[in-house]
Fold:
Amino acid sequence: MRRALIAAAAAAAVVIVAGCTPEVPAPSTAASVEAGAALQDAQAQAVIEATFDELAAADAALDGSMLGERVDGQVKRARNAQYKLKSADSSVPLTDIPDEMQAVYLPAEGSWPRVMAAVTVEPDDDLTPVVLVWVQEDIEDDYTLVGWAHMVPGATLPSMPGGSTGTSTLPLDTDTIDPTPQASYESYLELLRGGSGSDLDDQFAPDTYREGVFAARKSFSDSAEQSDGKAVDTIVPKMSDTFAIGTADGGALVLAPLEVRSAITVEDAQIIPPESVEPLVRGEIDDQATYTYADFLVLYVPGPGADTLPGVVAADHTLILLSAS
Amino acid sequence: MRLRTTALIAGLFGVIALIVGLVAQQQRPETTVTVGAPVGTAAVIVPADMLAFAGTDGRYAVDGAGTLLAFSALPGDLEAWASSREVTYVTGMPTWESLTTTVQEPEPDPSASPSASPEEESSPSPSPSVSADAGPQFESLLAGSADLWRQSWTGTDRLSVGGANVEPGLELMLTSEDGSPLTGVDLTLSRDVNDAWVAPLIVWGGILTAIGVIALVLLLIDVRPVQARAEEWMAHRQRIGTGDAGPKPGSRRARRLEGAAVPEAELAAEPDEQAGALSSDSSSASDEAADGSRGVTDEGGFEPPSSTSAAEAGPTSPAGTPFAVGGSAPGAVTSAGTPFAVGGSAASPSDPRSASTPSSPSAESAPTPSGSSPEEATPGTPPSAGTPSHDDFLPPAQADEEDDR
Structure:
């Protein structure tokens, strides 16, 4: 009797306790990410610091081979040329790129490549702020600084999306912008090729970059004509390395590295390169020389309904090579 | 009897409740549960939904060898990162005992030969063909860019990360630093177990059991004497509580409680028979007459004492008469020795409270308030001579009231 009582009580306890165990929680759905940009401020800052660490190490050694992890593209090419010049003449300054940013445009999540842009504070050389562009080609790749360009005096960068969404990388031929970023960029390249007399000149806002290119071209042409020669500029875009990122107003910024080759040919004369660029000379220059510039443009293409003209807001024009042909 | 039976039944229920409570206490589910699953890959990914499933206090942990790392990242980034790696995904927890996982094989390299079959893929565990000299060689999964990681955690041999520590919407990746396979992943959760009734059940079960035990003990021991004393004591205390501290010493109530006999009232006999009746019925009078202190003879007549002095005879009148003469007042005796007449309702001479003393009022019978002895009595002032006594017997209730006053 007593055993039966104890057994019954124990069984009742077990049954009751089994009923006390709550149900397994139902699967839940996670909230969406508030900070949807691919990089957040801390991550972007880490990228910037790693970039300037590498740049500072290479600058100290004037060794371009130390670049490549975080610094590549046009930046590496331009910096290599500056290292050569500075190695020959220590008084030649390197382009001052402040490591302090006044704005960082974070990349949006999505497909690759992803682009992060930043605007530095004004450099110590009293030039305008520098626009820096990083690109991540793949999830396995680091964000790499591929271009810099000083802002065009008087230009204003458009508003960019914040960190909650980030700045999307747009296809160059996106139909959300008319004309497309690619069409606008190609038109600008045609303007560069055509010169100041081109019909496209009034389709873009004035900028000091093309004025400088046109002025250099006229100088070369004048010098060549004095020796019955000629000067020809060749504009070589690098479309595979050109990206467009969306702006807040629905427009785009085209981040375009390009190469400008200014070839000079003279008759019955010899081209004597300036001594300051002697380290960049490749080959034996006689009556033909080609100046190669590694340029980087930031072209603003307004969004639909905007009443402003497309225009270059930042650009740099850096001599990297003087070759005999 | 009824109370004892109820207590025994309560004790039985108490025993049952105590057993149920103790078994429940022993068997009740834990409020914190850890659910695990074995892992054979170097990386474990906890999707954002499973992090949300863990709630605010859930924690994911992996076990492995050496330094272990954990990172949070955007789902899209982590999916792209994991596409080229063999990873284990935590997919769900269908029961409180199991954590489900699935292993994702790396996507085939587009440059690889399409003839490669899954059977030819290397096992995530170290190959047994590896020689004993050379330890297993692993390749870290962290060789690529680290720009996608938002947060990071580090541990040794075991690494635990709270689900709430990961930003909502992000996913969690846990891996070994050297690429060695992890051994397990587990999720620790807190749950609300409805066991608040166990402790009260044990307490009440214990109380009821104690009551039952007491009743059982009292069943075997006769406690009625103790109970009677207790009830008497309680009644006593109750009287004290109401202001009744008991009879005053010397009061009628006290005397009654002491057992004083209540005399029976007797009707007085006819005058002719009074003497005889008195002589024969009143023992006190006969006794007094026998010792010569009273002037009453056995024959019912009165014989003045011959040699007894007035002082010895009791109170006397100023003229030397032993008794005051006063008509036919009860108790009055004529000086001529005629038998005295008893008026009103005669009472037994032995009743000191109601009898009209036919002879001299002795100290025992006189209703003198002062209770003075015959020697102390004042001559010539007979106590209530000729006046019937009104000191009648009062019923106890009335006497009580009087005493109360």
